[in-house]
Amino acid sequence: MTATLIWILVVLVAIGVYLSWTAGRLDRLHVRMDAARAALDAQLLRRASVAQELATSGVLDPAASIVLYEAAHAARQAEEEQREVAESELTQALRAVFEDPAQVEAVREAPGGEEAARELAEAVRRVPMARRFHNDAVGAARRLREHRKVRWFRLAGHAPFPLAFEMDDEPPAALVERAS
Fold first, then answer.
1. Which pLDDT score is estimated for 178?
2. Measuring CA to CA, which residue among 63, 37, 131 is closest to residue 71?
3. Backbone phi, then psi, for 114, in 5-degree steps?
4. Are residues 55 and 72 in contact, defined by beta-carbon separation less than 8 angstroms?
């Protein structure tokens, strides 16, 4: 009888340790996901800021400046629910403005344009990487949260279910080709 109780206690302790380890792993995944989201937000803000600076610098034609400025401003001011759409619209505006390699060359030839074009090319190249890192972290957390043991024992606590950040992040080819 005593040996049976000891074995039951050992099994319960082992289960408790395993559940505690799983909860810690889930917590680390949530921390990784939050850090990746902060990095993504920083890259998106940097891209929008550089686009706004370029739009107001006078190196673009007036129509392109207006399109780029409005898209960048909307991306910076978007509420969380509309952020993906606003960022996608900024990407589309960047592609529209910089689809022609001649436009990129005109920007580079303007005073201060080489630096502005290089900075924008860097920003648009970093956004897809940051989004990929964020979505990878979200995917790992989601896969763990879908396990029965996590759901049954409510190991995720009250943390919201992780959501991927989906947006159009294809950079303008003429801008990134020249910068490479």
1. 56
2. 63
3. -60, -45
4. yes
Beta-carbon contacts of 127 under 8 Å, excluding residues fewer than 6 positions away, are 40, 43, 44, 47, 169, 171
Which residues fall within 8 angstroms of residue 172, CB to CB, at 6 or more apart?
94, 95, 97, 98, 99, 104, 124
DSSP state of 80: G
Q: What would the pLDDT profile of 19-50 be if each residue is shown by its tens digit?
A: 999 999 999 999 999 999 999 999 999 999 99
pLDDT score for 106: 86
Tokens describing residue 82: 């509309």
Q: Tell me which residue has tokens 């889930």.
A: 26
Q: Which two tokens stand for residue 180?
A: 């490479």
Provide the pLDDT for residue 180.
52
Contact assessment for residue 84 and residue 94, using Cβ atoms and an 8 Å cutoff: no
Name residue 73's amino acid.
H
pLDDT digits (tens, 9 = 90+) for 50-104: 999 999 988 888 999 999 999 999 999 999 999 999 999 999 999 999 998 888 9
